[in-house]
Design brief:
331 residues; alpha/beta; Rossmann fold; 2 domains; six-stranded parallel sheet; elongated; DNA-binding transcriptional regulator, LacI/PurR family; DNA-binding; DNA-binding transcription factor activity
């Protein structure tokens, strides 16, 4: 006989409403309670009746997560976190690529307004090119990343502080000619460049425009191409601060191919702490933040917005830390 919500509630020693909150993702539940309910769901082989649920509450049980570029290792790790967090809530997570396009973002917002999906988690590239703007009729939306729009809930890491700390680490280890690699039109780059510049200024080091290196994209190929182009016309810096680990992977490959040794000839650092960062040669010093926490908090905020569209919007800064590995050394 098929298990019911009441069966699960008795087994987990919680109320049926708490079971519904866990299954539907409608309200935040403490980790301990969620674990008890999930254990009961698994042990009783509970299967939610999604058709009945949709007819009852007008929801699809589907949310969308839209990222600018799905080809990067960072995108793979963050989408995995969202799929896992969604599964724990009984949600289907639809993964989309916005490509930084206002038209694509607008299409996704329209889907949510038409109730084809229940809500949207969006990672825009620039506020100016985002479809999420003041005065626009918005469905339930949570924004992640560096673009902040006060009209919606927002989760991000403090990029300025993180780059200030990362660059400061290099300064403290005796590096003086420190380059920043990753220049492109994005809010992430603008904030990371600000932190980099603040660290150099605080150390009394000059800001040299030649050490701010543009790229054609935040890909490994883009990183390799940019560092080779730079070194064809400029001397080797003491250190390279790469705006993402994906860029840093390309930089490490290009430097190795051209006969440079990291960290003996120069130090290299990244940002994101993707799983591959621990296995580059040498392992990469980088900025870490917990992507599973991002996904869990984003879906909690989205559930709150779905249930209470008038709730005041919030902006939450997530913690980060520097992970020291073997790609840096004192000068």
């Amino acid at each position: 006989m098929r298990a019911t919500v009441r069966d699960v509630a008795r087994h987990a020693q919680v109320s049926p409403k708490t079971v519904s909150n866990v299954v539907n993702g409608t309200f935040p539940v403490s980790p301990e309670t969620r674990q008890r309910v999930e254990d009961a769901l698994r042990e009783l082989d509970y299967v939610p009746n999604l058709s009945a649920r949709g007819l009852r509450n007008g929801r699809t049980g589907v949310i969308a997560v839209a990222l600018p570029d799905l080809s990067t290792p960072y995108s793979a790790s963050i989408t995995r976190a969202f799929v896992q967090a969604g599964a724990r809530r009984g949600l289907t997570v639809q993964i989309e690529e916005s490509a930084g396009s206002v038209e694509r973002e607008a299409q996704l917002l329209s889907r949510a307004r038409s109730h084809l999906i229940d809500g949207l988690v969006l990672n825009p590239v620039l506020l100016e090119t985002s479809a999420v703007q003041p005065g626009v009729s918005l469905p339930p939306v949570v924004m992640i990343g560096e673009v902040e729009q006060p009209a919606v809930d927002h989760l991000w890491t403090d990029n300025v502080r993180a780059l200030r700390e990362l660059t400061g680490l290099l300064v403290d280890e005796g590096h003086r000619r420190i380059a920043l690699l990753g220049g492109m039109p994005s809010a992430s780059y603008q904030l990371r460049r600000q932190g980099y510049r603040e660290a150099l200024t605080a150390a009394g080091l000059p800001l040299d425009p030649a050490l701010e290196i543009d790229v054609h994209g935040w890909t490994s190929a883009g990183g390799a191409e940019a560092v080779r182009s730079h070194l064809a016309h400029h001397p080797l810096p003491d250190a390279l601060v790469c705006c993402t680990d994906t860029l840093a992977m390309g930089v490490l490959s290009a430097l190795w191919a051209d006969g440079y040794r990291v960290p003996d000839d120069l130090s290299v650092v990244g940002y994101d702490d993707i799983p591959e960062a621990a296995y580059t040669v040498p392992p990469l010093t980088t900025v870490h933040f917990d992507r599973q926490v991002v996904a869990e908090m984003a879906l909690d905020l989205l559930a709150r917005r779905i249930n209470d569209p008038s709730h005041p919007s919030s902006s939450t800064v997530l913690p980060h830390r520097i992970v020291r590995r073997a790609s840096t050394r004192p000068r």
